[in-house]
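Amino acid chain:
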Amino acid sequence: MKKQDQKTEVKHEFLFEKINYKILLIGIGVIALGFILMSGGGSDNPNVFNEEIFNFRRIRLAPTTVLIGFGITIYAILKNPKK
């Protein structure tokens, strides 16, 4: 009976703080933006080659945006808000 009468307080804590989750969502948004920038450039006719697939947006800008997004998410994971 004594064990049932005693109430033990269990405090549930999140793994990260609120700022970490905000930065993580920003990083995921930047990654999604990079993949949206990569899309398109295809041809309706498979026998016709479309030069638009090799433009600056798909070759340089979109992969760089995705890598920046991954960097932001890694920063959000490693950031320690208690310091």
Q: What stands out?
A: The chain has a mean pLDDT of 87.
